[in-house]
Amino acid sequence: MISRLIFDSDLRKFPEYLFLFILLSYPLFSFFSWEFLELDTMKALGLVCVSLVSIKLILIYKSNETLSVPYYLIFFGLFTGYTIICDMFKTQIFEGRELKYFYSEPIWLTFIALIIVENVSYPHKLMVIAKHVLGFTLVIAAIVSVIQVSNPLFLINNDVLIDGLPFERIKQYYENATVSDVGSRANLSKVNRFLDGYRLSIFSYISELSVGIDTVAICSILISWKPIKVVNTGVAALSTTIISFLSSSRWIMLNCVICISQIIWSSKNRLLSLFYFFISLVFLILFSIAVASYMGMDVEKYFSERLMSDSALTRLLAFEVFFKVFPDNPIFGTGGVDTEKMIRLIGGRSSQIHVGFLKLLYYYGLFGGTLYLSFMVSLLTRLYKRAKFSGFWGGFYALLTFFVANLTLVEFSLFYYGPLLAIIFSNHFYRRKKLCEGGESFGLRESIDNLSISG
């Protein structure tokens, strides 16, 4: 069925199908990139994205095709340009990477990937297949998370750990590890999070944040699919709850609740849906605890040492330090550099200013911060309007949770396969609803929302 859909289409669409296939199989793609090609996953996908945009631009030059550029992408393009300038003259990152920069820098790659997702379209039959693939991925991810309770090394990218040792020996070896023992501060952070019980499920070959950002985005896509099927929605919500609970990350648990809560806000009887939501949430949490206990997890220790830990103090520290260092470079920021003053004020109590939006203003000032926040607002507004029209809220909630996450962590790049898929699905259902209505205003509506560049 998949092969017939592909080969019955214009061959020029093949790169678009390849892009969708890579996104749908991204955890597997990441595993093979690391294990067999010894290539960083982001660089592998980055090469694909840069190639696809190049092909699209060639087609525009040779034909009458157009390139759709939504207004949110203009804001992000300006922000991306500013970060590139900073990397050239402030951080020296560009000088160190040269051409590699353009397939390894996450903010730049986010801009390229967003151009792609706004300029691809797929048959509805293929999107139905994609939905089933994502559902299967979520179930497998939940099962792997459960297995990792008793076997922490299962399907883990342990490139920073000593090979061949059992978990207990690894724990003893790295118990008092320093930066010199693991090569870098980033590697030390990975080791410490691993020893603290952060479970990354099938996403460890992508990045540490992928388990939260991509899982929640996939769940958002699945539970937004109309018509709603109780069994499918329940399986998606249960799988996401298990992954979130076992991840040991509070920001992921919060995003899981926000994502699943869309069932309430998109329903006609919100009061009744709210009641069912809380009942279901309690059941999902209790079921996750029961599964974790059965697999040998010390749940009491988990609640006392992880969920109730004082790591939230690092966020308070972030505000304290920010208000002392921000006035030094309020307009253009530090250009992506951690100043000596900031490092001295942090004093080893945290690795950075641990609140995304504060770090944004510290790094890029009011100028860069305004560009990024304009991008955020315009993207969410666009997704909200499309969701209200089409009835598919998956894209809006997937991106909403990403920006909410930046209240407690630092991640400016959207170069994650879950959010990218969520935008693709959002655009698909918007176009599908428009075509079903047969409205002549479709082209006009699109031109108002986008700038179109043609050859």
From TrEMBL:
<feature type="transmembrane region" description="Helical">
    <location>
        <begin position="44"/>
        <end position="63"/>
    </location>
</feature>
<feature type="domain" description="O-antigen ligase-related">
    <location>
        <begin position="237"/>
        <end position="373"/>
    </location>
</feature>
<keyword id="KW-0812">Transmembrane</keyword>
<dbReference type="InterPro" id="IPR007016">
    <property type="entry name" value="O-antigen_ligase-rel_domated"/>
</dbReference>
<protein>
    <submittedName>
        <fullName>O-Antigen ligase</fullName>
    </submittedName>
</protein>
<feature type="transmembrane region" description="Helical">
    <location>
        <begin position="231"/>
        <end position="253"/>
    </location>
</feature>
<keyword id="KW-0436">Ligase</keyword>
<feature type="transmembrane region" description="Helical">
    <location>
        <begin position="202"/>
        <end position="225"/>
    </location>
</feature>
<feature type="transmembrane region" description="Helical">
    <location>
        <begin position="69"/>
        <end position="89"/>
    </location>
</feature>
<feature type="transmembrane region" description="Helical">
    <location>
        <begin position="128"/>
        <end position="147"/>
    </location>
</feature>
<keyword id="KW-0472">Membrane</keyword>
<feature type="transmembrane region" description="Helical">
    <location>
        <begin position="274"/>
        <end position="297"/>
    </location>
</feature>
<feature type="transmembrane region" description="Helical">
    <location>
        <begin position="17"/>
        <end position="37"/>
    </location>
</feature>
<dbReference type="GO" id="GO:0016874">
    <property type="term" value="F:ligase activity"/>
</dbReference>
<dbReference type="Pfam" id="PF04932">
    <property type="entry name" value="Wzy_C"/>
</dbReference>
<dbReference type="GO" id="GO:0016020">
    <property type="term" value="C:membrane"/>
</dbReference>
<feature type="transmembrane region" description="Helical">
    <location>
        <begin position="361"/>
        <end position="380"/>
    </location>
</feature>
<feature type="transmembrane region" description="Helical">
    <location>
        <begin position="101"/>
        <end position="122"/>
    </location>
</feature>
<keyword id="KW-1133">Transmembrane helix</keyword>
